[in-house]
Design goal:
InterPro entries: PCO/ADO, RmlC-like_jellyroll, RmlC_Cupin_sf. The protein is mainly β. 10% of the residues lie in helices and 38% in strands. The longest helix is centred in the first third of the chain and has 13 residues, at 56-68. The structure holds fe (ii) ion.
Length: 293
């Protein structure tokens, strides 16, 4: 099934959905697909195929990212953060070719089994990447980190729960903590529900909730600006974690670091959960024009 929006469509397949009295087959993916162009006779217009038109806001975001992320060690200045947040705060689903009217975002579109997450990359270079993640209802991006990265997340559509942590001591190797292996103490930074339209969240290499988990309450689309992108070769691989109640493994020495009224947990590094693999799809929304720089 294809939903058409301004030259870009979102294809949803996976389950049988009732629409206009018809049973329609869906697969478990969400994808942009090219618009089916129906030729109509227009004697006063040329027969040229209409090109995808760039989007002013997306283009502004791209230019601002180019100015902000200059290399792997970049931590954006306060000024750059404000500028990027301002652009993202005002971003609409339509700026990346999406719409709340797409079947995927409607409440009746419920994936019953294995609600897989889908992503698309709008742009990627060595310094930053722009990605959209599509989470069906109950879809989860499990607890994962962003080593050495700054990430701006803008929930474009839907409602999701976000939980995030920072390491209590980012400099200490977990081997020195004299705790059960692979457990490391983290401070809870966020544990709340976000509903679009909402402001942008920012996480930094050592603060702002660098380790986070997304759980979709309704079908969601999240735009992530990631600088620099994940790169295994450059030591920025993604690790996954399971959080344990702090009280499950109390430790006298580390407990001294705790401040009142703050929540802590032990994070255990785990293999990537099997059911959390994502499907990648091609981005066919408004293009980014690099030559405009
Ligand atoms: Fe993330």
């Amino acid at each position: 099934m294809k939903e058409d929006i301004g030259g870009v469509s979102l294809e949803m397949e996976g389950s049988l959905v009732e629409k206009n009295g018809e049973r329609v087959r869906h697969v478990e993916k969400v994808g942009y697909v090219k618009r089916v162009i129906v030729k109509k006779k227009k004697p006063y217009h040329s027969n040229k195929v209409k090109k995808h038109v760039s989007n002013k806001t997306l283009q502004k975001l791209f230019v601002s990212c180019k100015e902000t992320f200059k290399g792997p060690d970049t931590i954006p200045s306060t000024q750059h953060v404000h500028k990027l947040c301002h652009i993202l705060d005002n971003m609409k689903p339509e700026d990346v070719g999406l719409s709340k009217d797409l079947q995927f975002f409607k409440s009746e579109y419920i994936v019953k089994e294995n609600p897989r997450v889908t992503y698309t990359t709008i742009y990627k270079c060595d310094n930053f990447s722009l990605c959209i993640f599509f989470l069906p209802s109950k879809g989860v991006i499990p607890l994962h980190n962003h080593p050495g990265m700054t990430v701006f997340s803008k929930l474009l559509l839907g409602q999701m729960h976000i939980k995030s942590y920072d390491w209590v001591d980012p400099e200490v190797s977990h081997n020195l903590l004299q705790q059960p292996s692979q457990l490391r103490m983290a401070k809870l930074k966020a544990n709340k529900v976000f509903t679009s339209p909402c402001d942008t969240s920012v996480l930094y290499p050592k603060t702002g909730g660098n380790i986070h988990e997304f759980t979709a309450i309704t079908p969601c689309a999240v735009l992530d600006v990631i600088g620099p992108p994940y790169s295994k070769d450059d030591g920025r691989d993604c690790s996954y974690y399971k959080d344990h109640l702090y009280t499950a493994f109390p430790n006298g020495e580390i407990a001294e670091l705790k401040e009142e009224n703050e929540s802590y947990a032990w994070l255990e590094e785990i293999e990537m959960p099997e059911n959390s693999q994502m499907d990648g799809i091609e981005y066919l929304g408004p293009p980014i024009i690099e030559s405009a720089l």
